[in-house]
Amino acid sequence: MINVAKRLESIELSQIRKMFEAKPEGAINLGLGEPDFDIPENVKIAMKNALDEGFTHYTHNMGMIELREAIASKLKSDNNIKTNSDSVMVTVGASEALFITCQGLFQEEDEVLIPDPGFVSYTGCVNLSGANPVFFDLDFDNSYKMTVEDIQDKISSKTKGLILNSPSNPTGAVMDKKDIKAICDLATDYDFTIISDEIYEKIVYDAKHYSPGEFSDNVITINGFSKSYAMTGLRIAYLAGNQEIVDELLKVHQYNIACASSISQIGALEALKGPQNYVKNIVNEFKNRRDLITNRLNNMGLTCSKTQGSFYVFPKVNAIDENKTKFNDGIDFANKSLDAGVVTTPGGAFGKNSVNNVRMSYATSFNEIEEAMDRLETIT
Q1: In Å, how far from its chain's centre is CA 202?
Q2: Per-domain residue ranges for the chain?
Q3: Which strand (E) or helix (H) includes residue 16?
Q4: For a Cys-Cys bond, which of 11, 50, 72, 346 suits 266, CB 3.0-4.6 Å?
Q5: Angle in degrees, CA 237, 202, 125, rounded to 5
Q6: C-alpha–C-alpha distance, residues 170 and 305, integer Å
């Protein structure tokens, strides 16, 4: 018998990783959300130079002051969030930012509103904080965009937080400004904190991204460099919010991490200060891939909602035409697609509302997506 904390009983390992680890030789991976691009050349050079100069020691717990100032400037110019370097903390990826925010804000008997479908880490981080996740359904017919009506009936005296993710993983939905503003008003009226996961902020196609932090002080904004600059393995991100709250979150960060990697912080600083053509180019490429995968899936009878951001599609797979093969649910489809040599993620990983969906990432090459669609046609 092993002795582990009881709170771990409600935590499951990610189905995304399970499917990835089950990948047979020669399979095309549409399961992981990792851009296939190399990091920007100027970022690479800056990190090499820092390494040559011996910049391999601890930084300030909150992160390098130059980087925090650059992030604060970015938040003002890009997102109209009025902040300063003392209200910004550099973290080891957006995952750490989410974890320490939940640890610092929530406790037993608190309730945190979580979208269904929503990213797998949200429920795990809330459960680990001791709080209770309260799920609200997003509507396929509204392209899975979160609306103020979706959450109104879920708010109670125990509501302490709401996790908002736009552009969304896994659905690719981008929220409308009016709903973001209305939800911010609810956060003020009912005194709960919005945790705004904006890691896909720059990967937007046919819409405009708005940050809740523009409209409310009751917001912790989480963002980073993994998706827009393909810096996934460098594990570098940040959170920003009310300075008094960030000072409290520092307690969790300090005893858990101490500080983010010095070399990764140099890379993040260069990514912000350097030319942004890299981001524009990869977004254009993602848009081409989105159009390819969406058209191919729709032609197979796999119904996709409109995808306006991130690099995922989230089709329903049990709604095939009568003359074609049907699937029991997302797990059935994912298993059959794996047999065909394509890794996908069952929608149930993202919530009970999504058991008949699968998530596919188009963060791999155009040619690999074409080949993956050819393989999926053999099972549909």
Answers
A1: 12
A2: 13-33+278-377, 41-273
A3: helix 15-21
A4: 50
A5: 40
A6: 11
